[in-house]
Structures are given as structure tokens and as C-alpha cells.
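Appendix B.2, paired examples.
Example (i):
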Amino acid sequence: MKRDLVFEKFLERQLELGLELAAESDLLDLFPEQDGLPTQYLAHFKCKGLVWTKEQEAVEIDSFLVMIRFPRTYLQIPNQRVVNWVRPREVWHPNIFGPAGHICLGNLGPGTPLDSILEQCFRVITYQKLTMREDDALNGDACVWARRNQHRFPIDSRPLRKQSRTIKAEVVE
């Protein structure tokens, strides 16, 4: 297969950006794949988010795993699925359907950088970003619950980067 120097440079930059963000954060551990230039990352977020229990209630936990993978066509094709939810499967959020591994961050344009993707994942997990429209939600039940419980948001108001300021919840109508 012919080398794609532009994609390789992109991957080099993503490694730099991802490791820089992880170094600036107490709430993120980032694990690039081991071989060559990483095209895949496991992100461990140590922030507060919600899961739905067997007792039918939303409770806070502080450990979430997300997989980010950059396919070879990432720089050319818009809206590719590059983010997969790993665990917990019982995560409770309108923009996440954990059992299927889906997470919606909105439209990711070709070349959206890794640090931006990680920041968006964090904002979703902590309820700083969510949809309130059931027709736009991956988890309609969580969407209904979220509309009734907006007073609880954000679940975690700490910034992902140590020097960032606190961001208020962004509700998409």
C-alpha cells in the first residue's frame, strides 16, 4: 500500500495533541496503540457522569472509556464514525447508547483533531453538552429524564484542562 504522507503527518500531530491534553488534565488518561503511528486511542475519563441502575435511577460514577480510531479515509470523508463507547455499557446520557457503543458528538468534519474529539467526549459525559430533543437523541429515555433533571447539570463542572475555566451546560434544543 502506498504511503500517505499527509495522513502520517496528521497522525503524528494527533499523538502530540492527545498526549499534550492528557498531560494538562487530571481527568484524562490516554493510551495510544503501540505499533507505529497510532491510529487508535483508548481514552479513560476520570470525571463524573451517570449510569442507569437496576433500581431505575441515575447515579454518578467517575470512570468512562472511549475508543477513538482514525481510518485512512478520515481526512477526506466527513462524518465518519471514529468514536466508540466502550464502558460502562449502562451509561445514562441522551447522546450515548452504550450497549451498541454509539456516542454522538455532532458533525465531525474531516480532520477534526484528537484533542477536540476528546474535549467533546468529556463535555458529553459530564452533561456539559446534551440534546434535549428525543428525535435527535441516541437514548430517548435518557433525553426525557434529562429534560426533567436539568437542575443537576453539569454533573461535573471541573475543566478537562487544568487551566481551563468552567463551562456551563450546553443544551441543544
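Example (ii):
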Amino acid sequence: MSCVETYVTLRIFSDSMHPDEISAILGIDAKDARPRDINSKYRPRREHNLWAWDTRPFESTDNLDHIKKVIKVLDGKEDHLDKLRALGCEVDLYSYWVGNGQGGPFLHVSTMRSLCDLGLEIGWDTYFRKDEDA
């Protein structure tokens, strides 16, 4: 595997719910919470509240380890996620992945099944670094 750095973020966006309300329903404290700011120069901050929890500083360079860590944190919280969706929240996973050669992130069938059971889509933000030793 060519991964040199990775982490996964559980993101919850809401037009109306404050991040503190999301924490209360989910039973997990956010690592990053940005309440909606109608005066922000950034459109996403004007339009949405953001609640986020990520796998940093977990040091593994195996993207699957990070995804499984999120799945473990959400174990038993399927109903909480469904409630947030019913209240208009958008919930997903986003993976930061940096590689230095061939290969890329992948999912095992069991991991895909777990993500489906939680109703989670996943996307990747991928970068490639040219290392002299690669």
C-alpha cells in the first residue's frame, strides 16, 4: 500500500440544528463544531451547521483501520443516525488519503456492509506526494 497519511471524518450537516443538539442526540462530542454563520463570507458556513468527529491522531496508515474506528464509535447508534436524518441532517464519511505510489484506498465487503447498515456514504479526498525514497 502506498498510503503515507490518512484519517476519516464523520460529518453531519444541518440547516437548522445547532452542533450541540447533534451531540446530544448522537451521544458523542464533536471534535469540530461550526454553528451556522449567516454573515460568513464562505457559503457553506452561511448555509449549514457542521458537526464533525475524526480519527486523528490515530496513527495508522491503513485507511480501513480509520473507517473501522468510526464504525466502532457508531456501534449501536443506528437509530440516533436515523433520527438525525429524519430531522433533516445530512450524514456522511469523508476520508483524507495521501499516497506516494501505486495503489489507493479500498473497502472490504464487510466494511461496506457495516457502512450500509449505518446508512453512511463515503468519499475520499486523495493526494499524491512525490517522495524521493518512493
